[in-house]
């Protein structure tokens, strides 16, 4: 009895273990109308699958595309791009559930650019198109397509697939994510051999985005705050003068140089992705570049400590420094939300920022203790180069 029970549990566990793996292959998928296709492909991103049959005698392509919207109530899409490899210019079949009936319906969209996605008949014939909702929550597109003569002669087509979070008023599609999986969802479909190959363009774009993110996180997000901490706290110790100043200058100039490189990669990415705009991230980035450029000039415009304009220079230098510090950290987090890297990278940056904040609080307390102790002694030595009436700790010098 015990042996049979153990065997039953073993086989049950084994079935549960392997069943997810089986369900993740296109060969295990069945259709409610028992459609049969010559080829099926597990597409490399977005957990999507393509079944298709191509008849070269009449250049007809029958497809079944299966995927799951990124959020409940979202949409899925499969498209052919007649002239390019990306989404812009593609002719798309899009499925989402009707908000009133809850029935999945196919719609056609002409994606002439990233900023122009409008419901429109496609540039090639689609004599038959239907959709269905599957039991696992995924959606399926079924279509028969008349492949244009020029593509039929080549024997290959550029395919693009995508998933989105929702549908707005008037059937307008809500913008999909721009994570790595979304950017990789394109490739070339070999109609005759039943194979698909992916393009390396998505990898290149992701690599550029990663470089952009790393450069800006290091510059605006770490080096600039570190330089500010040196100027505010290390200078409190007389033995650190003038070493603190050279460390401060080194950190800020290095941060500016790296930040400009990151800003340049951002401009390059923007020029290569017309229609994709992250307004908040972009405007903060421009503001950071302008403020930091003006701040660098502070090094050359810095009057002597006893100059009458030094007071106003300090106001300008400190104000710009605080603005760069705050905006830089905010924009780094905005970049994380756009790039969507593995969670560990965002967590690592948060740990660095929290650690720097904790160290700043500790140094703030120590700094005030030093200042108050000097004040209690009624020291005649100026604290930071100002006259005795200004011997209290000055604001952040950057």
Describe the overall structure.
The protein has 398 residues and is α+β, with helices and mostly antiparallel strands. It folds into 2 domains: 26-198, Immunoglobulin-like (Sandwich); 204-372, Up-down Bundle (Four Helix Bundle (Hemerythrin (Met), subunit A)). It has 8 helices and 12 strands. The strands form 2 sheets. Strands 7-6-5-4-10-11-12 form a 7-stranded antiparallel beta sheet. A 5-stranded antiparallel beta sheet has the order 1-2-3-9-8, with no helix packed on it. Strand 5 (90-97) and strand 6 (104-113) form a beta hairpin. 27% of the residues are buried. It is a multi-pass membrane protein. This is Cytochrome b561 and DOMON domain-containing protein. It is found in: Membrane. GO terms for molecular function: metal ion binding.
Number of domains: 2
- The outline comes out as elongated
Question: How many whole angstroms does the radius of gyration measure?
Answer: 30 Å
Main-sheet strand order equals 7-6-5-4-10-11-12
Q: How many strands, which pairing sense, and closed or not: the largest β-sheet? A: 7 strands, antiparallel
- CATH-defined architecture of the largest domain: Sandwich
- What is the rounded distance between the termini? 79 Å
Order of helices and strands: HEEEEEEEEEHEHEEHHHHH
* Count of β-strands: 12
Q: What portion of the residues fall into strands of 2 or more residues?
A: 15-25%
Percent helix, as a range, is 40-55%
- Average pLDDT number: 81
Stretches where pLDDT is under 50 for at least 5 consecutive residues are 1-23, 385-398
Q: What is the SS-derived class?
A: alpha+beta
CATH class of the largest domain: Mainly Beta
DSSP summary: helix tally: 8
Query: What is the fold-level CATH name, i.e. the topology of the largest domain?
Result: Immunoglobulin-like
């Amino acid at each position: 009895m015990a042996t049979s029970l153990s065997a039953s549990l073993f086989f049950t566990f084994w079935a549960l273990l392997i069943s997810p793996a089986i369900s993740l292959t296109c060969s295990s998928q069945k259709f409610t109308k028992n459609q049969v296709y010559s080829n099926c492909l597990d597409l490399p991103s977005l957990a999507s699958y393509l079944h298709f049959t191509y008849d070269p005698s009449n250049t007809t392509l029958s497809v079944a595309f299966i995927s799951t919207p990124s959020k409940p109530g979202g949409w899925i899409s499969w498209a052919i791009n007649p002239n390019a490899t990306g989404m812009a210019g593609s002719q798309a079949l899009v499925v989402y559930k009707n908000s009133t009936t809850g029935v999945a319906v196919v719609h056609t969209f002409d994606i002439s650019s990233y900023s122009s996605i409008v419901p429109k008949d496609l540039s090639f014939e689609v004599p038959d198109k239907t959709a269905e909702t599957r039991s696992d929550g995924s959606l399926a597109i079924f279509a028969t397509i008349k492949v244009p003569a020029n593509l039929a002669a080549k024997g290959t087509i550029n395919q693009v697939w995508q998933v989105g979070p929702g549908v707005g008023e008037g059937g307008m599609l809500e913008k999909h994510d721009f994570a790595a999986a979304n950017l990789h969802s394109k490739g070339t479909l070999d109609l005759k051999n039943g194979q698909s190959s992916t393009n390396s363009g998505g990898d290149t774009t992701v690599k550029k985005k990663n470089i952009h993110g790393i450069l800006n996180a290091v510059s605006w997000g770490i080096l600039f705050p570190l330089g500010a901490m040196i100027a505010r706290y290390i200078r409190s110790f007389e033995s650190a003068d003038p070493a603190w100043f050279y460390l401060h200058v080194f950190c800020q100039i290095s941060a500016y140089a790296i930040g400009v490189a990151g800003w340049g990669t951002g401009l390059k990415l923007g020029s290569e992705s017309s229609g994709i705009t992250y307004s908040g991230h972009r405007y903060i980035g421009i503001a950071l570049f302008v403020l930091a450029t003006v701040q660098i000039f502070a090094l050359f415009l810095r009057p002597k400590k006893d100059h009458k304009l030094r007071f106003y220079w300090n106001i300008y230098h400190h104000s710009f420094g605080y603005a760069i510090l705050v905006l830089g950290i905010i924009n780094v987090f905005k970049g994380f939300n756009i790039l969507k890297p593995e969670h560990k990278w965002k967590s690592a940056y948060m740990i660095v920022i929290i650690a720097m904040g904790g160290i700043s609080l500790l140094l703030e307390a120590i700094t005030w203790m030093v200042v108050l102790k000097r004040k209690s002694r009624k020291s005649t030595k100026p604290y930071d180069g100002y006259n005795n009436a200004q011997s209290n700790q000055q604001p952040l010098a950057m």
